[in-house]
Specification:
Radius of gyration: 21 Å
Number of helices: 7
Order of helices and strands: HHHHHHH
Helix content: over 70%
Largest sheet: none
Number of strands: 0
Strand content: under 5%
Distance between the termini: 62 Å
Structural class: mainly alpha
């Protein structure tokens, strides 16, 4: 009996980390302001992975706390990101993953302070480092 109980406990301990995966977020549990900001993805919300739903919700919350200047800057950066090809975006994501936390922090600071022209120069520098 104790051997059986030990096996069950062991199984639960091994499976528990995977069982704690995030639960999907129901659309109707979002606040009115979150729903307004996330309206473009409303139709596919239920099909998004829970991790993506959580990231979108966190982004909506951050957006609500931004000043008008911060929002304008975020829009500019997003437009800049949209001009990149899918290959360029993937390369930047891969490069970002290889950076240390300190390097990410320094790069994030430079990016946040950069004008659009300086941002393009920064992207050029990153591409040069990869080669």
């Amino acid at each position: 009996m104790s051997k059986y109980l030990f096996s069950i406990v062991l199984l639960v301990l091994l499976v528990a980390p995977y069982a704690r995966a995030e639960a999907p977020i129901r659309w109707d549990t979002l606040s009115a302001s979150e729903q307004k900001l996330l309206a473009p993805v409303k139709d596919k919300w239920a099909t998004l992975p829970p991790q993506r739903q959580q990231r979108l919700r966190e982004g909506a919350r951050r957006w609500q706390h931004m000043s008008p200047e911060q929002r304008a800057l975020a829009r500019t950066r997003f437009k800049r990101w949209q001009t990149l090809t899918p290959e360029q975006r993937q390369q930047l994501r891969q490069h970002w993953q290889r950076l240390s936390p300190e390097q990410r922090s320094r790069l994030r600071e430079r990016w946040q302070k950069a004008s659009p022209e300086q941002g393009q120069q920064l992207l050029h520098e990153l591409r040069q480092r990869r080669q």
